[in-house]
Design goal:
Elements (H helix, E strand, L loop, with lengths): L14 H40 L10 H5 L3 H34 L6 H12 L5 H11 L4 H9 L14 H25 L3 H9 L4 H29 L3 H7 L6 H10 L6 H33 L1
Subcellular location: Cell membrane
Protein name: ABC transmembrane type-1 domain-containing protein
Keywords: Cell membrane, Membrane, Transmembrane, Transmembrane helix, Transport
Length: 303
């Protein structure tokens, strides 16, 4: 029988309970072990390998020549074109994706529209590479379906206007196919976070739709929208399979120059390729870092 002040540990604080908690924690860490293993093998080790190779020459000696070579005109032009393609596709994808998500979430549309749009967005946002390039060539190529129909029924020669599926505008248009659905998937939860009570309070205080969007909705949404745009930029900047399959070497963007340096027979300079890749890692890392910071800020704003 325990008396007052008896400090004998109860059943929930004994050695067995501590052993059980340690065993439970061990099983919990075991569950996330595949994630850490994947991150180490496919993210950390390749990045470290790139960093080491970027500071070496072909004989393995330390050098800064690779970073000096990044200032070549062709390399700077490749980075500039990649920036333009990524920015254009990110801005277009963000604007159109936001409008689509807003119509599905807040528009007075039939109930089946939203699940259908979300399902399509989940599939289309991952449709890239050779299949996507082939689909756009068959659609908007010189003898593509849309090109032929425009010429036959509307007497519009698409390619006489200067458009080409192998150009900057063609690649940007192709990227929009997966950028718009990705924006829909990212921004829909943010639109769901706009509480109906906020709009009702604005109406009760005599505010209009302009006041609601200007002073309530947009201040809450802008971190999510801007963060999603940065994520779209990083997504386009690192895309290589679609651009290579669509344009080959006709459009000088960083992923194609990188591929030529590492795998090419003429421009083969593997260590310069590592420096190019490290530059891409820095650009996409900054974009993703901005997205994470803005997303955390948006979550705090919604709370």
């Amino acid at each position: 029988m325990l008396t007052e002040g008896d400090s004998r540990p109860g059943p929930s604080h004994g050695p067995r309970a501590k052993d059980a908690r340690r065993a439970s924690a061990a099983w919990t860490w075991l569950g996330v072990l595949p994630f850490f293993l994947f991150a180490v093998l496919f993210l950390l080790l390749p990045t470290a390998y790139l960093m080491i190779g970027a500071f070496q020459d072909a004989q393995g000696h330390f050098t800064l020549v690779n970073f000096r070579d990044l200032l070549q005109e062709t390399v700077l032009e490749a980075y500039w074109i990649s920036f333009k393609v990524s920015a254009a596709s990110a801005a277009g994808g963000a604007a159109l994706g936001l409008l689509l998500a807003w119509a599905a979430v807040m528009g007075r549309l039939p109930g089946w529209i939203r699940p259908t749009l979300m399902t399509f967005s989940g599939v289309a946002s991952n449709f890239a590479g050779v299949p996507l390039a082939f689909a756009f060539i068959c659609t908007l190529g010189r003898i593509g379906l849309v090109t032929v129909l425009l010429k036959k029924y509307l007497d519009i020669n698409l390619y006489s206007t200067g458009f080409s599926i192998l150009s900057f505008s063609g690649l940007t248009l192709t990227y929009l196919y997966f950028q718009i659905p990705l924006m829909v998937l990212i921004v829909t939860p943010a639109l769901d976070g706009l509480k109906r009570e906020w709009r009702e309070a604005c109406d009760c205080l005599g505010g209009t739709a302009y006041h609601y969007w200007r002073y309530v909705a947009l201040p809450v949404l802008w971190p999510s929208v801007l963060g999603a745009t940065l994520l779209l930029f990083a997504n386009a900047f690192g895309a290589v399979a679609t651009a290579y399959a669509l344009t080959g070497s006709s459009l000088n963007i960083v992923p194609i120059v990188l591929y030529a340096q590492i795998r090419g027979d003429v421009l083969h300079n593997q260590n310069l390729g590592y420096a190019l890749a490290l530059g891409m890692v820095l650009v996409t890392g900054l974009s993703n870092g901005g997205y994470i910071w803005l997303r955390s800020r948006a979550e705090r704003g919604r709370r």
